[in-house]
Amino acid sequence: MKIPALRSELGGRTYYVATLTFQQVSDYVSKIDNELHKSESLKDLIQRSITNNYIKIKEYILNQDERFFNSLILAVYDDYPVWKEVELQYDDGSTYQVGLLDFPTQHKIFPVDGQHRVEGIKAALRENPDLKDEKIAAIFIGHKNDDEGKQSTRRLFTTLNRYAKPVSFDDTIALDEDDTVAIITRELLEDHKLFQGKRIVYAKAKGIPNNNFNALTSIITLYQCNIELFKTWHFKTKKKKATASVLSDYLKFRKSKEEIEEVKKYIFYFWDTFCKELDVIKTYLKNSEPFAKDLRNNENGGNLLFRPVGLLPFVKATCDIKILSGAKFRLILSKFNKMDFQLSSIPWEKVMWEPATKTMIMNTATLTQMLLVYKFDSKLLTPTKLSKLKKDYAVKIDFDGKPSEVLNSIK
Question: Cβ–Cβ contacts within 10 Å for residue 53, how many?
Fold first, then answer.
């Protein structure tokens, strides 16, 4: 195996940057065996770190035409490759960092970083041999199979994994071109009057700053609401529930233009109806800046819809009602429009709003969602959920009467 490469050095370690075909990865790169530990149990521990995640990588390779990966970091030992440098002249300078890595014998090569990518590539190649000429960047480092060498490579192994940072939630929303809901959320932000300008908070957290009296909600909460709407669309069109695994797989690969447009139409329709049927939203859209001053405040909490911890349960409840009853969004939202969503009123006080301290109460999303469904139509709750609702609500409001009477005040 002869590979064109660049030579460089960092932290006293010489390394080489090159590319490998998928076939070369399959033929020459092995799993970690006794390279990092002598102990059988420790070797097993390293091997168990290779989870079924490689299957997702395989599916990504097989299904995503615009696939791309970070570089593999590969350790070479037993016999180092021969570096044959070439002088490269350019402008007024020259370098000897360009050359050829020559592997004249069967070297042992294992991944220090990229174990799952290696196994995913091998699995994809078994299913589609035509992928053999695809190329992935690879960084080669030297590894000595003695105690000092193992210690050095173990340190590199943990450093690479310890400081690896997954893509943040807000970056996914802003940049992901495969996630259907992220794509549609961006279009809502650009094209829908409810989410333009200062009416949405661009932040890395779900919450809205106390001094923000303009926004309806945060970009992360909007995305989460759209996930719930997507799951409702999926149930309606695919005739099956979008479980966590189904949702993860669906959002991983870009769908056809026609299907994205269909989901977009459904989600946009909900938010259009949201604006038309809810008087508080009509008022919000008519207000001059600050748009939400009277709708979110620290005196009485404001309106449930203008708190991220209220809007998401509201959308979830609306989707539950639609699935359970078959009612249209227009009818559901029209009925909700007649309800009191002031946080200082029953049943939201003590559930979402603490009047004594004038603060929001967190971690009550499920209870809020069940209360909304109950207020819409108590018959939609199963006996088990109704029993849970009574119990959880009684605890929140310190109710000491008969359990059967705890919900009487919220009819």
Answer: 13
Amino acid (one-letter) located at 270: F
CA distance 23 to 130: 10
Closest CA to 139 of 170, 168, 117: 117
CB 19 within 8 Å of CB 135: yes
Residue 51 CA to residue 263 CA, distance in Å, equals: 33
Is 200:219 a contact under the CB 8 Å cutoff? yes
Pairwise CA distance, residues 59 & 250, whole Å: 12
Dist CA 22 CA 135 (whole Å): 6
Output the six-digit token pair for 214.
């303009």
Q: What is the pLDDT of residues 268-279, one digit of tens each?
A: 999 999 999 999
What does each C-alpha distance from 138 to 20, 83, 95, 141, 280 come to in angstroms? 7, 16, 21, 10, 57
| Predicted model pTM | 0.72
First to last CA, the chain: 76
